[in-house]
Write a structure and sequence with these properties.
mainly beta, 1 helix
């Protein structure tokens, strides 16, 4: 029993010592911003294709950044949640059925995990940087709304899609108070570079994010 308690205390002590060492170079924070899709999002359900233009919308995010001691390189992990609304058309690809496009409204959400690396040009009060990111994105089930010929409101769902992409970013951090940093970041990403289906085009987006980061 005593050995188990000792082992547990050793593990707890090691954990807190490790956290203290890493926290010297670790910052976490929350952000909010705007996202602008540069081209249409295309999704498929059975024999129908949905193509819609996303209106510029907002997103919120969570970030964790760790700078390698003695260098100007830091690793980044993050999570984005974007609310997506847009307008588009549904087209039937089955030759035996009507191909008249249907105008629709679309509500969707994009959830993205980000793993990246950043290079700090300057390590001071102002911290300009550039970065390269790998994006793991999941479009939720898309809610489609339209009216049929009789004027009745129709609601359909297109199934979720998961994609892998790459992104480039640049930004600047400003320490306006010890342990608190304001971060402004501009990011360009291709959201479906990997896993793209035959019917898809590249989905590219630009987003601007303002974050408050805290040193741990």
């Amino acid at each position: 029993m005593r050995k188990s308690i000792k082992r547990f205390l050793y593990i707890i002590t090691f954990f807190f010592l490790s956290l203290h060492v890493f926290s010297q170079n670790l910052i976490v924070g929350f952000g909010w911003g705007l996202i602008s899709f540069q081209n249409n999002v295309i999704e498929k359900s059975g024999n129908t294709l949905l193509s819609y233009k996303v209106e510029s919308d907002y997103h919120y995010s969570f970030f964790l950044k760790y700078i390698i001691p003695g260098t100007q390189i830091r690793f980044k992990g993050g999570y984005y949640h974007s609310e997506i609304k847009g307008a588009g058309i549904i087209t039937n690809t089955n030759p035996s059925e009507t191909r008249v496009p249907t105008n629709v409204r679309v509500d969707n959400r994009l959830k993205s995990l980000i793993l990246g690396i950043e290079y700090l040009w300057i390590k001071g009060k102002f911290k300009p940087y550039v970065g390269l990111d790998m994006l793991f994105g999941a479009f939720d089930d898309a809610d489609i709304f339209y009216e049929d010929k009789s004027g009745e409101s129709i609601h359909k769902i297109y199934p979720s899609e998961t994609r892998v992409g790459l992104g480039l970013s640049g930004g600047i951090g400003y320490n306006f108070f010890p342990g608190i940093e304001l971060d402004i970041n501009l990011h360009y990403g291709v959201l479906n570079l990997l896993g793209k289906k035959d019917y898809e085009d590249n989905i590219t987006a630009i987003d601007l994010t303002v974050s408050i980061m805290f040193g741990i």
